[in-house]
UniProtKB/TrEMBL annotation, chain A:
One of its GO terms (molecular function) is Glc3Man9GlcNAc2 oligosaccharide glucosidase activity. Keywords: Glycosidase, Hydrolase. This is Mannosylglycerate hydrolase MGH1-like glycoside hydrolase domain-containing protein. The keyword Protease does not apply. Gene3D superfamilies: 1.50.10.10. Signal peptide: none annotated. Residues 40-433 form the Mannosylglycerate hydrolase MGH1-like glycoside hydrolase domain. The keyword Hydrolase applies. SUPFAM superfamilies: Six-hairpin glycosidases. GO terms for biological process: oligosaccharide metabolic process; protein N-linked glycosylation. InterPro entries: 6-hairpin_glycosidase_sf, 6hp_glycosidase-like_sf, Glycoside_hydrolase_63, MGH1-like_GH. It holds the Pfam family MGH1-like_GH.
TrEMBL record, chain B:
GO terms for molecular function: isomerase activity. It comes from Streptomyces wuyuanensis. This is Sugar phosphate isomerase/epimerase. The keyword Isomerase applies. Pfam families: AP_endonuc_2. Residues 21-262 form the Xylose isomerase-like TIM barrel domain.
């Protein structure tokens, strides 16, 4: 490749870099970064991982702190909670708030920390991948601070939790127990499994997301009631997976693909800290085999979610089924089919859309503006860019990188965008949007140099 | 890339030309001058003109006196203002950008006995505004800037944080008065130095660098990448002037500064 990015001259890139840096410097709170000061004023698990990947270009120390502060709230059972609440933020600034989750009391038996309030569910395990990338950016600072030595046992315990307590089927894959766990909160994939859930009564909770967000782009009240019911039931069972009925349980390909990528990263981290990397490599390979065996759907040309309680394939095509592109050792025919699907009629990258949509463009539930039912997300597109590059689709990766950078700057670092037009939705000055832009900009600098 | 400068007393050599030779080899882009009182700086004009002719880059000067425009004593205050005006004229004459001064240094600290300064807050503010206005008008006339440097709480009791300097500069209302930030003082006073730079962005005119322990950048524990990223973010186009003490071999210590700042993102 000799692309020189003539459509993004150095000055425009420098401006984008400054604007992205401003977002991350402004959203820093001293120990971590809020996704958005308005809509999301606490620390989110997978947000922090993507933020660290961008923050490493501004301050390796802050990037390390970002991940350290997150794992500082890890539970004794190994889970990394999806939200770590800031005690400085008023209770009513976000729902479900700490007094809903009650982690320090309800989660005590499961090992929730006593001095920090968190949620009780999790988000995709992208943290080891982030930690490895943060280390790579400045190994000297990382070694001096003992970054990987401190993180390694925590990350290993996190992966242990997922494969010990969340493998409900014996397939060797982790299940998610709430639509918020795979990170794609309102995906049409969850509509089927959610129908079984009796919503919590509307008067039992008060949404805050609608105060800052556009209701037409957010989940419906009925779905929100179901989210609340699932979380409350988990809480009322002490957040112990063995004792909770978990009426919602899904094997999600993206979630497991990120676990595999992180398991590979953990092998590298183990080597750095003088530990045996082989168990991690073996676990990554076993996970890869299980992923392909149980979730690969050749007719769809992609991975599909599995409804564990209904013992059935969820036929909706979600971008989660393309995320296994980040897995290094996929069978060749799977890679070929995935590359075809990314650019094919259902996702249309490069022909129909500028960024990869979160959901099937031809799907019955497609909506280019509604939360996880069509819009494009920047962290997802960062992962796909990485996956395309990993599997040799360099020109597609370069094109996607340019599109992501244009959409990030053009939308003022929106939370998510219309995949066709790049029009921004949700919060703006959103941290992971700025973070992945910074990281991709660093990649364009390398491209210029080759 | 941000440009770097080194204060003249840190550089080996007997003349500015010799110091410049060393500074350039080390990777500095300029020399920051130091100005003593009693119009000593004005007396150096022949030396400075000769250095300028020989290509020495000298964009800024930092005051090197023991009384300042915020002094309690009216006579000392008057003298400090006169000295600063003269220093602004000299730096203008050699084509520089500006002169840096704190409100005071070593005169009083609210953190040390007797804790309460002899002047009330209203009077302090009036003194500062009067001094900054006179100096700012002189700087404007000369086409240069006066850089007001917030110092940490143990060295000055009046202007410690960037927001206090911004407040005074807004009240003065002169573009010729800017803030001269200093990484060492900011480390003590600012909750988040990088965020403070973003907040005060339009008012920042100059930057001095030393590490958390006042030694050369790289010898302490400041988060330099974050601090420098903030300066890049606001489009800062001035110098990073090393004003520090040195630890280790002094020549090696000075030589290490530009490379360290570059590696940290300058």
């Amino acid at each position: 490749m000799t692309t020189t990015l003539t459509d993004r001259p150095a000055r425009a890139r420098e401006r984008l870099r400054r604007d992205a840096a401003r977002v991350l410097l402004t959203n820093w709170t001293g120990t971590s970064t809020v996704p958005s000061h308005t809509l999301y004023p606490h620390q989110w698990s997978w947000d922090s991982a993507f933020i660290a990947i961008g923050l490493r270009h501004l301050s390796p120390r802050r990037a390390q702190r970002e991940l350290e502060s997150l794992v500082g709230a890890q539970w004794a059972d190994g889970r990394i909670p999806h939200i770590v609440f800031s005690p400085r933020v008023p209770l009513d600034a976000y729902f479900p708030s700490p007094d809903f989750w009650r982690s320090s009391t309800a989660g005590r038996a499961a090992g929730a920390p006593a001095g920090t309030e968190t949620s009780g569910i999790v988000q995709p395990p992208v943290h080891a991948l982030a930690a490895a990338l943060v280390h790579e950016r400045d190994p000297a600072t990382s070694r001096r601070r003992g970054f990987l030595e401190r993180l390694y046992p925590r990350l290993a315990a996190w992966h242990d939790y997922l494969l010990r307590d969340r493998d409900f089927t014996g397939h060797g894959l982790a299940s998610v127990v709430h639509p918020w766990e795979p990170g794609m909160d309102n995906s049409p994939c969850w509509d089927g499994p959610l129908r079984r859930i009796t919503p919590a009564p509307p008067e039992s909770f008060r949404r805050v997301d609608l105060t800052h967000g556009d209701a037409a782009a957010r989940p419906t009240d009925l779905d929100y009631g179901r989210y609340v019911r699932l979380a409350a039931d988990y809480r009322d069972h002490g957040y112990r997976d063995a004792g909770t009925p978990h009426p919602f349980a899904v094997e999600d390909p993206g979630f497991n693909a990120l676990l595999i990528a992180s398991e590979h990263a953990l092998a590298g981290i183990a080597e750095q800290v003088g530990r045996d990397p082989r168990p991690h490599r073996e676990r990554a390979e076993a996970l890869t085999d299980a992923l392909v065996r149980h979730l690969w759907q050749p007719k769809a040309g992609m991975f599909l979610c599995r409804d564990v309680r209904g013992d059935s394939v969820i036929e909706d095509r979600s971008v989660t089924g393309l995320l296994p592109l980040v897995v290094p050792s996929l069978p060749g025919h799977v890679v070929d089919a995935l590359l075809g699907t990314v650019t094919g009629e259902h996702f249309g990258l490069g022909t129909g859309t500028r960024l990869v949509a979160s959901y099937d463009l031809r799907g019955p539930a497609f909506d280019p503006a509604r939360y996880w039912r069509g819009p494009a997300w920047f962290n997802i597109n960062w992962l796909l860019e990485r996956g395309l590059r990993l599997h040799g689709a360099a020109s597609e990766a370069d094109a996607l990188r340019r599109a992501v950078l244009d959409a990030a700057g053009g939308s003022r670092f929106a939370e998510y965008v219309d995949p066709y037009t790049g029009e921004g939705h949700g919060a703006n000055r959103f941290s992971w949007t700025a973070a992945v832009a910074l990281d991709l900009l660093a990649g364009t600098a390398e491209e210029d140099g080759r | 890339m941000l440009k770097t400068a080194c204060q003249e007393q840190l550089l080996p050599g007997d003349t500015l030309q010799e110091k410049w030779e060393f500074a350039q080899n080390a990777g500095f882009d300029a020399i920051e001058l130091r100005a003593k009182g009693d119009h000593h700086f004005r007396g150096r004009l022949p030396e400075l003109r000769a250095a300028l002719k020989d290509g020495v880059v000298m964009p800024t000067v930092c005051v090197d006196m023991l009384h300042f425009f915020g002094a309690f004593d009216a006579d000392l205050r008057r003298d400090a203002v006169e000295q600063m005006k003269s220093q602004l004229s000299v730096i203008a004459e050699i084509g520089g950008r500006g002169a840096q001064t704190p409100a005071s240094y070593g005169m009083f600290s609210r953190r040390l006995p007797p804790f309460e300064p002899p002047r009330g807050e209203e009077e302090e503010r009036a003194v500062l505004l009067e001094g900054l206005t006179e100096l700012g008008e002189h700087a404007r006339k000369e086409g240069v800037h006066l850089y007001l440097e917030p110092l940490n709480r143990y060295e000055d009791h009046m202007v410690n944080r960037l927001e206090q300097a911004v407040d005074l500069i807004r009240a003065v209302g002169l573009d010729s008065v800017r803030i001269g930030i200093d990484s060492y003082h900011m480390n003590i006073e600012e909750a988040d130095p990088a965020a403070a730079i973003l907040e005060a962005a339009p008012y920042i005119g100059h930057a001095q660098v030393s590490d958390s322990n006042r030694f050369q950048p790289g010898a302490g524990h400041l988060d330099w990448p974050a601090w420098l990223a903030a300066l890049h973010t606001i489009g800062y186009d001035g110098y990073l002037a090393a004003e520090c003490r040195l630890t280790g071999d002094p020549v090696g210590a000075v030589r290490s500064i530009p490379g360290f700042l570059r590696r940290s993102g300058a």
